Amino acid sequence: MINIRTRLTYQFVVLVTLILLLFSLGVYFFSKLYLEKRFYKRLQDRAITTTTLLFDLQQTDSTVLRLIDAAGKEALLNENISVYNTATREVLFSTNPANTQFHEQFIPQLDSAAQTLYLRRNEYQIVAIHLNRTGGGNWVIVSGIDQVGKDALADLKKILLIMILAAVLLLGVSGWLFADRALAPMSRIVQQVTTIFPANVQRRVEHPNRSDEIGVLVATFNQLLDRIEQALYTQKMFIANVSHELKNPLTKINSQIDVALIQKRDADAYERTLQSLQEDTRTLTQLTNTLLELANTSIQASTMPFEPVRLDELLWECKTQLQAWHDDYQVRLTFPDFPDDEDALIVQGNRAALRVLLMNLMDNACKFSPTHTAQVEFLAKDEHINLTVFNEGPQIPPADLPHIFQPFFRSNATAQSSKGHGVGLAVVAQITQLHRGDITVQSTPKGTTFSLILPSLGHLS
């Protein structure tokens, strides 16, 4: 495959060569026109000189010939001058009587209405001038070959060809050097990128000019490196937190089994041990399910099937299911302004994912509320569905609010009041983003409010 440097050189050479060819053709064409015009002017001067000597001075033929030759600054190749009378239809005078037939073939083309005619036959250029006199109209016909002009055009062609060949060679060298200089920043970028590894992913590509196209490319590449660094950091934290979260219940389960096997115990002791193991197993199962939800949301985002989902009905289903799982949980739903249009209640999304989102929000609110109560307000307006979930739990510090949607993050204000793994809200954030929605959180001493906004079916259509 041809590299960019070679391709740029080829394109540069071809483009400039085409321009040189067009320029050379233009020079050759206009030079040819100029030489033809100049030679016609010389023939016209010969005709005027002949007319003056023959008719005004009334000289003899031999005298006219000598005077015409003397008047010419340089001889014309195959020059022939004839005077034709239209009344008698005879050639009155010719500098080459033996070749009068050459001029006679142009007599049918002579137009009395024209003053001067310019003709061409093979290599010959012909000028015919009409004279109106009392003895009848006369035509002075002068012909010749512009050998000097032909030689000049031939020399010009050779010069242009040599110059074009030399220019192509020079363009190839200069184009190669120009492409090398133009791509030098890219080579430096490649060298810098090859030194970036996961161990030093915090390094960034440097470029002196941030305003040119390469500078924009470098800025975009650095933004990509920022995202990669963040992804690697999140992955490391994810692995570390998962290991820690899985290690605790597994160690606890293993320790309780070891203690139970040291010596025989009564049935009550074994029952208490099994209940403790059951609780640890539930914790481990909950963590595993939450991690699977987080992974599925990230991996299957592009293949997740979407369908119209009526959100108010799904909200009632989630409320019923959550209260069935936890007898002490209370979810209070309010609909301040229920719309008449059914489309205002429908969102285009994945029903299972939306169920996980709503369940996590309500479970989180009930878990941190002293009364285990979540207050949910449903409002559909402006082609969006606004859902607020409020709990009277402890205030989350403002410094922790930007991080609560990160996996495994737990605020110190809430970590002591309830057990958890810090994954549920990360799942909520990913599902919300997947459905082109927005979720925010506000926390005051009175409680914490999560505000969820999803586009309704009317907005999407």
TrEMBL record:
Residues 180-233 form the HAMP domain. It is found in: Membrane. Residues 241-458 form the Histidine kinase domain. It is an enzyme of class 2 (transferase). One of its GO terms (cellular component) is plasma membrane. It catalyses: ATP + protein L-histidine = ADP + protein N-phospho-L-histidine. Keywords: Coiled coil, Kinase, Membrane, Phosphoprotein, Transferase, Transmembrane, Transmembrane helix, Two-component regulatory system. The chain crosses the membrane at residues 12-35, 159-179. InterPro entries: HAMP_dom, HATPase_C_sf, HATPase_dom, His_kinase_dom, HisK_dim/P_dom, HisK_dim/P_sf, Sig_transdc_His_kin-like_C, TCS_sensor_his_kinase. Residues 260-287 form a coiled coil. Its main location: membrane. This is histidine kinase. It comes from Fibrella aestuarina BUZ 2.
